[in-house]
Structure to design on (136 residues):
């Protein structure tokens, strides 16, 4: 299987909450549409410093993380980000790798949007068809 990319829209989840509370206008939500590498080996969303600044995300915590090459690093975790792929959405924190070349869409948001990789077409697809199915 080759590398799969998907176009996703990232939004500052705090901004979305401010709009719901009437503190901000919807047009003020900070967002960016990006092409992300779909990486089932990554746990969650990984963004770089440019995206963090553009979305206005604050750093909340730091964690030790293990990279694909086995090295261990300390990385920051941001405030929640809303991820949208087509008509599906998921909110999660993002790991910040300041100089990352690629935005990574990992396993947790994929599961949260009920998405899988179709290996024949090398694209994202709904795990249960066109309608997301969520397990409780």
């Amino acid at each position: 299987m080759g590398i799969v990319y998907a176009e996703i829209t990232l939004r500052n989840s705090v901004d979305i909450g401010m709009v719901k509370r009437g503190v901000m206008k919807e047009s003020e939500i900070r967002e960016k549409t990006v092409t992300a590498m779909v990486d089932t080996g990554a746990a969650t969303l990984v963004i770089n410093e440019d995206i963090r600044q553009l979305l206005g995300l604050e750093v909340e915590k730091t964690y030790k993380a293990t990279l694909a090459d086995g090295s261990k690093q300390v990385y920051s975790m941001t405030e929640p980000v809303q991820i949208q792929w087509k008509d599906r959405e998921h909110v999660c924190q993002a790991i910040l790798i300041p100089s990352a070349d690629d935005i990574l869409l990992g396993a947790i948001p994929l599961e949260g949007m009920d998405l899988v990789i179709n290996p024949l077409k090398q694209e994202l697809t709904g795990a249960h068809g066109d309608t997301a199915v969520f397990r409780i």
Remarks:
- Residues 13-20 form the longest helix (8 residues).
- The domain at 4-126 is CATH 2.40.70.10 (Cathepsin D, subunit A; domain 1).
- The chain has a mean pLDDT of 92.
